[in-house]
Every structure is written in C-alpha cells, then in structure tokens.
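Case study: Fe-S oxidoreductase.
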Amino acid sequence: MLYKKISMQKYENLHKIFSGSNRNTFKICRECGGACEHNKIGTLLPGEEEYMAKKMGINVSEFKIRYLDVLKMDDGTLIHVLKLGKLCPFLSEESKECNCREFKPVFCKIYPLILTLENEKINFKIDNSCKLSRKKACRLYFETAIPLLSNLEIPVDWLRYVTSYDNLCFDYDQLKEYRRRKNKYAVFSLEELLSLQKAKIEPINLCVDFGHDFVQKVEEPVF
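Here is what the predicted structure looks like once written out:
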C-alpha cells in the first residue's frame, strides 16, 4: 500500500517553528541519558526520508543505505525506520550529540508527545513515563506542536501499522546478531521483528490518561 507523501514544505514549516528542545528540556534529557531511545524503533513519516536526504545534501538511495531499514507488514506495506541497532544512526558516539538536530525525525523531535489512534481518529497525548512530562512548562511546550502535526495530515491507515509495534521493547543484542545476515538497507518482516522482542517484558502502554490540570487532548478529528 502506498501513502501520499507529506510535502517537504510541511516538514520545513514544522522544523522552522518547533525546535523540539529548549533550556528546560535539554537539561532534563541530559540528566536522563535518553531512556526513550532504548529498545525502541524510530519510524519515519511518509516522505520524510526524502526531506532528510535533501537537508543532508545526499540522494535518497544513499540516505536509505546509511540510515534506514524497512519493516514489511503482513500485507506487503513498507514502513521506513531508522537502522535497527543499539544506537540511533544519527547519534555521534564521540560527542553523544544528534547529527540531524535541525531536521531530526518528527516522531523523535516531538517526544514525549505521542500519536494514538482512538476510534479511527488521531489524538495527541504526552507519555507520562518521560521525565519531561513531570515539568509543566515542558508539557505545555510540547503541546504547541499539536497544530503543526495536524497540518502534516498524517495518514490514519499508516499510523495503524506503526502502532502495531511502536509500544514494544526489543532485544538490541539479539537484533544486532540477527542483522548481520542482512544487507545495509535491510528489510524485516513483521514476523521477524516480533521474534526479537525482549523476553518476559510486557509491552509498554503509552496511552495514558494524565488528568485535566494542564494536559491538552484532542477529542475531535484533527484532519
């Protein structure tokens, strides 16, 4: 199944308006050590690989080989994800800094804001397990990204695939060994992916009710 790609201009607008970090968030993330990156899979939105490749000044084919793998769903639908392994392919091992901070994957940039599907509608919530969610100023800051995300017009059918694995935890050591049999730009079936979950760990439920003090939840369809 093919989805309408989100335009480069919409990605550009989001990154121009929403930085994804400030003095408050950077300090908290630095102290945390990036717990959100462990044992998870980073997914790119439809067409995001083309936007990021252009920002890096390389062609899409080279971008895919360097940074991406593919998840092949049961019906043949292909989902682009960051290269599966212990570290994000954009994270510098020496400086511990992100090499694509100005145009990093949207799902990474907006976290702890997450997208959920409820009654075939896309809603936005904040993951209460993230330390950023415990500071009111940070929660309010990330909620400012909601209108920008709405403008992207993310396909509901596409997000349904993503939510089928996005709340799972994976064994990176096992994944690293398994991946040695694959090409640089590897295709993983959903069945293969599910076999590489961490043993005896329940899936993490990110759809949390945070109360009504200062959390915004979009009840109506956003696109």
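For the exam, be able to explain this: Confidence is low (pLDDT under 50) at residues 200-223.
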